[in-house]
């Protein structure tokens, strides 16, 4: 029953996915960025996730939640062809980006990853200065004047809510920053090339609560400009920041092999307060997973 749920209506974000505005009028849904239809991902002979169908919409925050091993990171990595780097990984079914097959032969995975950036679990600055960490992708893109680079580095660091803290030490190593600052530096690096989408794989799991809160605030701000997809183990985080939530679970087949599948995908407020599936309710109320 909804009354048992540990996450109350007050905490679940009634975000921009809500189909009605506060005054009750209908709001048209945002344009679709990704369409997954019957997507399967295998590692060798192991089908890690199967039959995933969902749409990810523009400038929304979509959270992927579910117990360990249900395939959240696998699904996330399929959105910018990061799985291409994993030997034996194979994606089948439909994965469209703005209606185009993301896995078509003529699609350049490097260009895909420029448009669809990624932030990882552990902050992973390059062994370079703060400035060069952010400038890196811009330099790879091609020649730019010094002042253009300076402007873009400032823009990205401001966008990642880090500029004020680092503007006087841009030549210092990225490693000299705190964990939370390093993660914001990685976000700055990701957004410096002005991607359309930022994928975040448990971006706060290595951070303390204060640094986590800053990143959550930042995500909300970033969603004004970027489409964000986040994997999180932290259900309160999904409830606080996301507009839509996808709940995955893993079924065990007769041979004891686990296959991840999408159980339910809806507006976050619905998933946390009125889930349609018992398994979703069991998971978010802490009775399962
Ligand atoms: N590089 C890989 N090679 C082989 N199998 C993999 C690889 N990455 C993931 N898997 C398998 O795919 C399944 C889904 O893993 P995945 O990491 O996507 O799940 P997850 O829900 O993100 O888990 P967690 O919450 O623990 O990070 C698991 O059975 C895992 O062992």
TrEMBL record:
GO molecular function: ATP binding; ATP hydrolysis activity; phosphate transmembrane transporter activity
Claim: ATP-binding is one of the keywords in the record: yes
A cellular component annotation (GO) from this entry: membrane
Family annotation (InterPro entries): AAA+_ATPase, ABC_transporter-like_ATP-bd, ABC_transporter-like_CS, P-loop_NTPase, PstB-like
Keywords associated with the record: ATP-binding, Nucleotide-binding, Translocase, Transport
One biological process term in Gene Ontology: phosphate ion transmembrane transport
Domain ABC transporter, residue spans: 34-275
Pfam family, one: ABC_tran
Leader sequence segment: none
Keyword ATP-binding among UniProt keywords: yes
Classification via PANTHER family: ABC TRANSPORTER I FAMILY MEMBER 17 (PTHR43423)
Name of this protein: Phosphate ABC transporter ATP-binding protein
Organism the protein comes from: Streptomyces alkaliphilus
């Amino acid at each position: 029953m909804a009354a048992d749920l540990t996450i109350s209506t007050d905490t679940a974000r009634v975000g921009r996915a809500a189909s009605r505005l506060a005054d009750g009028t209908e709001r048209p849904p945002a344009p679709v960025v990704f369409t997954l239809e019957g997507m399967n991902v295998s590692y060798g002979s192991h089908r890690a996730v199967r039959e995933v169908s969902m749409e990810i919409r523009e400038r929304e925050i979509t959270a992927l939640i579910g117990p360990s091993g249900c395939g959240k990171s696998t699904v996330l990595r399929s959105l910018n062809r990061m799985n291409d780097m994993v030997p034996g990984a194979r994606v089948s079914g439909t994965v469209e980006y703005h209606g185009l097959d993301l896995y078509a032969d003529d699609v350049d995975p490097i260009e895909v990853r420029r448009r669809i950036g990624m932030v990882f679990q552990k902050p992973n600055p390059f062994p370079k200065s703060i400035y060069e960490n952010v400038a890196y992708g811009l330099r790879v893109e091609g020649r730019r004047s010094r002042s253009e680079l300076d402007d873009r580095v400032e823009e990205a660091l401001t966008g990642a809510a880090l500029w004020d803290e680092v503007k006087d030490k841009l030549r210092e190593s990225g490693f000299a920053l705190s964990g939370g600052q390093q993660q914001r530096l990685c976000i700055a690096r990701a957004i410096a090339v002005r991607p359309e989408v930022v994928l975040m794989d448990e971006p706060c799991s290595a951070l303390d609560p204060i640094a986590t809160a800053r990143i959550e605030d930042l995500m909300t701000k970033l969603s004004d400009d970027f489409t964000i997809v986040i994997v999180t183990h932290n259900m309160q985080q999904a409830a606080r920041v996301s507009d839509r939530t996808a709940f995955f679970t893993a079924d065990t087949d007769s041979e004891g092999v686990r296959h991840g599948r999408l159980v339910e995908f809806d507006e976050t407020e619905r998933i946390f307060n009125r889930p349609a599936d018992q398994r979703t309710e069991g998971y978010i109320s802490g009775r399962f997973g």
